[in-house]
Amino acid sequence: MTSPSFTATAEGPARQANGSAGAGVTGAPDPTVSADSAGVRHLVSIADLSRDSMLDILDLAEAFKEVAERPIPKVPALRGKTVATLFFEPSTRTRLSFETAAKRLSADVMTFNASTSSLEKGESLRDTIETIDAMGVDVMVVRHKSSGVPDRVREWTRASVVNGGDGQHEHPTQALLDCYTIREARAERSPADPPEDLSGLRVGIVGDVRHSRVARSDVLAFTALGAEVVLVGPRTLLPPSLASWPAKATADFDDVLPTLDVVYLLRIQNERAEGALLPSLEEYHERFGLTRERARRLSPETLVMHPGPMNRGVEIAPEAADLPASLITRQVRNGVLVRMAVLFHLLGAGATAGWDERDDAAGGTDESAGDRTPEGAGE
Hints:
By secondary structure, the protein is an alpha/beta fold. The chain has a domain at 172-330: Rossmann fold, CATH 3.40.50.1370. It has a five-stranded parallel β-sheet, covered by helices on one side. Strands 5-4-6-7 form a four-stranded parallel β-sheet. A three-stranded antiparallel β-sheet has the order 1-2-3. Residues 1-38 and 350-379 have low confidence and may be disordered. The relative contact order is 0.17. The protein has helices spanning 51-68, 93-104, 125-134, 149-153, 172-189, 213-224, 253-256, 270-274, 281-288, 292-297, 318-321, 328-347, 357-361; strands at residues 5-7, 14-17, 20-21, 82-87, 108-113, 139-144, 160-166, 202-206, 228-232, 248-250, 262-265, 303-305. The protein has 13 helices and twelve strands.
């Protein structure tokens, strides 16, 4: 697996992946460009990405890891660009992750708060989007409780649209950071022969699969990169049909547990028990939670993951969350790296100021990029 490098040119950063160079291109991304040529225009679903594009983003995230370790973790790759985070439902990890990623790339950030917007005065969603679009943003990161909203938003804006999670549909950047985290953990175990993808792994996604946007995106991403996926949960929380799911399903967690390389636990919402989809949260924990007893039966090599926020004592026992093979905290850290890669993947070819990874690593400066010191460092 070869990390990509970046070279600053007059036209913008030219990306080299696995030895093949891509020419810099001036201006904003071309909306007619296909996902398999110069780059994607939007990221609403994992299906918007080819396998090669997914690996491209993971390699970009790996290159950005060095940036995150600097005293001032910032590069001018997207200087002059504006990223708007439009969150119509509460979020901590995803919103802060995108805003941190944009700032580390030197983009300007516009934060939208639905509760204090003109939506409260009766303004339509479309009018809100078109108002923000008129201000000249380059990327809109959209999170909404209704499925399909990011797809509609891209019809109303000239900006690139990234799905930050929509209803029960998808959460593509969560899936990408999960893929990156698994691949990173495997590479640390086999540094001499780091894996390119997830081939050979068996991943169990456990919990409320039916209502989970994370599960939908993860299944698509994991299988596209070569993993086998099994969905685990009570029948009431599994998909009624697997016709569109490239995965198997079972209601017997203990049966499949010894066969799993990755145990991925989904958050259980209290309303599932209140809505009679579960007998009780206590019974769910006994049958489908990663209890203390199940954690003892795991191989030391089995990775444990959770998209957060965790309900300790429901889907996961406190001891299990803190296992040496738990990647839960690492998922949060890697979310910034992967979202930096996504933003650069969408806009990097059109950035007016590039960066040279090799020069920066050696402590060099790019006179054309200006002062690299971030405003409000440490916020």
